[in-house]
Amino acid sequence: MQSIGFIGAGTVGSALALGLSEKGYPISGIASRTRLSAEKLCRKIPSAKFCNSPQAVVDTADIVFITTPDDTIAEICRSLHWHSNQYVIHCSGAYSLELLQTAQGFGAYTGVLHPLQSFSLQADPVKNLEGITYALEGDDQTLPLLKDMVKVLGGEWIVLKPSDKVAYHVAAVLASNYLVTLIKMATGLWQSFGIPEDKAVKALMPLVRGTLSNIEKAGATNALSGPIARGDCGTVSKHLAALENIAPELIPAYKELGRQTVKIALEKEKPNITGIEKLSRILAN
């Protein structure tokens, strides 16, 4: 089996290295900007050797993953001497193969593998690789290799065109990062009536989990509940009046989210057209 090296030992790189090693892939070498993180990862993978430079990884691996922050991928790729018929993979969700043009010039095969998952603070990042979707991009030689990896990791894959990448990544940000923002906004409102953030999070999480479960079972449109789904103009007006006093900075976000939610409410079976149209006018002002 072909050996794999990693340049970057952050959360994504570590999860993939551990996951692939657990499934029998030989991890040959690991380098990272932070020496300690690379050495820590090597101790968890018996076959892996600490490399004191990215070039050392390139020189010892058949497949090289660049799992550094997005803004450094192209720079790292340009700084290295790649080998013909070597596989070079990056894991950015927003960027395409253009970041790896230098490696292509050396005759290397290139691809992108982005795990659609949040790895921050996960107790078991390897388990978090199972059952998730991986967004793939690559040439004819690389795509079969990446598909085999995803299959071994227990995931599903989709193949994206370069023009698809940014929309795909925006969707991921909305579903994950901005969910964190929404919870932060919600817990901030709880603090206005004396409930600290930790207790607010504990109280709201069953609601969040229930909503996510409903989305998974019935889809986003059918999962929508609440005042906009009902066309309840009085409640929304009270929300806006309260926000004016408590947190006026949240009003633009509340209105824009409301306007987007109106569109979903109109897709539901037997919508309250009159109430929803009135809500649209309230949220537009």
UniProtKB/TrEMBL annotation:
Tell me what organism the protein belongs to.
Answer: Dehalococcoides mccartyi (strain CBDB1)
One Pfam short name: Rossmann-like
InterPro entries found in the cross-reference section: 6-PGluconate_DH-like_C_sf, DUF2520, NAD(P)-bd_dom_sf, OxRdtase/DH_put_Rossmann_dom, TM1727-like_C_sf
State the source organism's domain of life. Bacteria
Q: What is this protein called?
A: DUF2520 domain-containing protein
- What SUPFAM superfamilies does the annotation carry? 6-phosphogluconate dehydrogenase C-terminal domain-like (SSF48179), NAD(P)-binding Rossmann-fold domains (SSF51735)
Q: Where is the DUF2520 domain?
A: 133-261
Provide the Putative oxidoreductase/dehydrogenase Rossmann-like domain boundaries: 3-115
Q: Which PANTHER family match?
A: CONSERVED HYPOTHETICAL ALANINE AND LEUCINE RICH PROTEIN
